[in-house]
Design a protein that fits this description.
- 48% of the residues are buried.
- The chain has 19 helices and nine strands.
- Strands 3, 4, 5, 6, 7, 8 and 9 form a seven-stranded mixed beta sheet that branches. It has a two-stranded antiparallel sheet with strand order 1-2.
- Helix 5 crosses helix 7 (165-199), helix 7 packs across helix 10 (399-435) and helix 9 (339-375) packs antiparallel against helix 10 (399-435).
- The longest helix is centred in the middle third of the chain and has 37 residues, at 339-375.
- The protein is globular, with a radius of gyration of 25 Å.
- The termini are far apart.
- It has 660 residues and is of the alpha+beta class.
- It has helices at residues 3-14, 42-55, 63-73, 76-81, 93-120, 137-146, 165-199, 202-214, 339-375, 399-435, 438-474, 485-492, 502-515, 520-533, 542-569, 574-604, 611-628, 632-640, 644-647, and strands at 124-127, 130-132, 217-222, 238-241, 248-259, 268-275, 288-293, 304-309, 320-333.
- 55% of the residues lie in helices and 10% in strands.
Length: 660
């Protein structure tokens, strides 16, 4: 069979998992029960009815929305036809639809019902080499690995399917919304795989890639230490060559905040660890990268263990570990003292994954909110009763509630489009890497390098807002755990912190990418925006034409603001830091609006068979341009604000009562 035919057979088999691994969400609830025979109060009955309703709405894969973006907006069918079939496994619409449909089944029937149990039960530390994951997580992972999902977009020579990277990213967004903390286990492995492919020796690739790609093992990244987070120049973990064992090193040190650093889903875990060689230069120039497995080739445990797992605000389903390396054996990945550069392959994979976390939270919060807003009845609409046969109107008729719902919808759908754009670029980069086309790799890598901090920074902030609005739509009920709105917020709150905080992403975008790039990235991007909206500037569709002119204006203003910051930074470097977060958010809103422009244009071309769907797209786009894009006015003011307004207050003057 051809690779494509084999993959289709695997996907077809995966759709039969429904009866094999259906886990009842109620089985994992930790709700107190009434005593046997005790009469249920009206309040208890009401809570039970609400809980049953909430249970049935864990997650619904938004296939119509996804197909609109995949085929009407981004033309993935044409994109896949344009890829080199000698480099990547051919991928057509039938393959994409089979992957999406099978993933829908997995998400709705298996992963979403486990999400609440992951939050309520979480992971449990037993001993330094044993952490028990939440109920059902291990079985779900076994099913995932056996059906070949981890191998979807990795090279065939190491056991992968060789399909485009974008297909795995489309799948991951669905899984992220169904059960984010479960996704972290295979998601981190993908970062380890990409890092070993990019920088590992042939021996390391041959030995470690097949079990990682098959899902037999998982991977982690170990950067943070008690004394340093983003400032990795302070890393103190040591790597000492082992006498008589060529290529082997003894790794010693403590790493903290290691997601999925210990668990029971696989027998072995591959850690990518930053450490210093003897006599290495100080700072980041002296950091190297090492592969350190939980178990050695012989099966015996390596000299490392988990001393604790963190008690966190959210993401309880994934264990965040403190790892102690005590002379553990490791192997060098890549070039000595270039470890941080190599690790950015892993970091950038995770940053794009964290952007997916933001839109997944927005999608899940939107789904939860929409159900509730349609069913919760309170008061009457100010313009007159909308449901006179009911005791009160549903709250969805209130403009203030509509505003919250449309914000969630705009972020989820527009953010998904932003991720799909990067997914297509990732395919082109993957193809160029496999073909050895260094010039093309550099071009696509530069494009992704510019977009990644915008997606990671903006979409995680927007995802937080959407999750917070999810609680607000529920009112007081949103503060109650059984309704699950607050879990979405707690789980996504970390998104703007890990893999570089929003402030770090903002400095990366404005300082490293744009200023160090001598403004070339923003000039090229703004020119691309103008080319995008030009065909619509003279459209007979007045709404589309107006929005196109708005994108054109903002593309010019974006450049202007960049020049203003550059001029100020020439005499005061703090101007970059002072302006960076507002600059990032400005960039995000303009990018979101540009994607909604394309979605509106695609909806305008839509056929007569679904007029309501396409009309809703145009109406949501109008909301974006009238309600969300104007937020750039406040961010513009922040960009241009005086640096001194933030720096004039001395550290001692922040409080005269505490922290003295």
């Amino acid at each position: 069979l051809s690779s494509a035919s084999k993959r289709r057979n695997q996907i077809a088999a995966a759709t039969n998992m429904r009866s094999a691994l259906r886990v009842s969400q109620r089985a994992h609830r930790l709700r107190p029960q009434s005593a046997p025979g005790a009469p249920a109060s009206v309040a208890e009955a009401a809570r039970g009815a609400l809980a049953a309703a909430v249970s049935s709405r864990a997650y619904h894969a938004p296939l119509r929305e996804m197909n609109f973006l995949l085929y009407d907006v981004h033309n993935f069918e044409g994109h896949y036809k344009g890829l080199n079939e000698e480099v990547l496994t051919p991928c057509d619409r039938e393959t994409v639809d089979m992957v999406v449909d099978a993933t829908k089944t997995m998400c709705e029937d298996v992963l979403a019902p486990l999400n609440e149990g992951g939050d309520r039960v979480g992971s449990v530390w037993k001993d330094p080499n044993t952490v028990v994951t939440a109920p059902g997580f291990k079985d779900a992972y076994k099913m995932y690995a056996e059906n070949g999902w981890q191998a979807l977009s990795f090279p065939e020579q190491y056991g992968g399917q060789g399909l485009p990277m974008s297909l795995a990213l489309v799948q991951s967004e669905m899984i992220a919304a169904a059960n984010w903390t479960w996704l972290m286990f295979p998601g981190l492995s993908k970062g380890a795989i990409n890092t070993i492919i990019a920088h590992g020796s042939e021996d390391l690739k041959d030995e470690w890639l097949p079990p990682l790609i098959s899902g037999e093992m998982t991977g982690t990244m170990c950067l943070t230490e008690p004394q340093c987070g983003s400032d990795l120049g302070q890393v103190t973990t040591k790597a000492v060559p082992i006498d008589g064992a060529e290529g082997e090193y003894s790794i010693s040190g403590t790493k903290i905040f290691i997601s999925c650093g210990e668990h029971d889903m696989t027998d072995n875990i591959v850690h990518c660890v930053l450490a210093r060689l003897p006599d290495a230069p100080a700072g980041t120039a002296g950091i190297s990268l090492f592969l350190v497995p939980k178990r050695l080739k012989t099966g015996e445990l390596n000299n490392l263990g988990t001393s604790r797992i963190e008690d966190k605000m959210g993401c309880h389903g994934s264990p965040t570990c403190q790892l102690e390396f005590e002379g553990a054996k490791g192997w060098l990945i890549g070039t000595p003292n270039r470890g941080l550069n190599h690790m950015f392959t892993f970091i950038n994979t995770s940053r794009l994954g964290t952007a997916v976390q933001g839109i997944a939270a927005a999608e899940l919060a939107f789904q939860n909110s929409l159900w509730y807003a349609k069913e919760r009845r309170s008061m009457r609409s100010l313009s007159g009763s909308k449901e006179p046969d009911q005791v009160a109107d549903a709250i969805i008729h209130q403009p203030s509630v509509r505003t919250m719902l449309l914000t969630q919808k705009a972020v989820a759908e527009g953010g998904r489009s932003m991720v799909y754009e990067c997914a297509k670029i990732a395919d082109l980069m993957q193809q160029a890497e496999y073909a050895g086309d260094d010039a093309a790799v550099k071009q696509h890598d530069g494009r992704l390098a510019f977009l990644t901090p915008i997606l990671k920074g903006f979409l995680t902030e927007a995802g937080k807002e959407a999750a917070d609005l999810g609680i607000q739509v529920y009112g007081g009920h949103g503060y109650i755990k059984d309704n699950k709105a607050e879990q979405v917020f707690r789980d996504v709150r970390i998104a703007s912190l890990w893999e570089g905080t929003t402030q770090i992403q903002a400095l990366d975008l404005l300082g490293r990418k744009i200023m160090l790039g001598k403004l070339k990235p923003i000039n090229e991007h703004a020119a691309g925006l103008r080319a995008q909206c030009t065909p619509y500037l003279t459209s007979s569709d007045s709404q589309l034409r107006s929005h196109a002119w708005s994108v054109l204006y903002h593309s010019l203003e974006w450049q202007y603001l960049t020049y203003r910051v550059a001029m100020r930074a020439a005499s005061d470097k703090e101007a970059i830091s002072s302006s960076s977060v507002d600059y990032l958010m400005y960039s995000g809103y303009v990018t979101l609006a540009a994607h909604w422009l394309e979605m509106e244009a695609a909806a305008s071309r839509g056929g007569p068979e679904e007029p309501g769907f396409y009309k809703a797209k145009r109406q949501t786009s109008e909301f974006v341009f009238e309600r969300l894009l104007p937020r750039t006015r406040a961010h513009k003011a922040g960009i241009l604000a005086s640096v001194q307004s933030a720096l004039d207050v001395s550290p001692d003057a922040f409080s005269f009562d505490h922290a003295r």
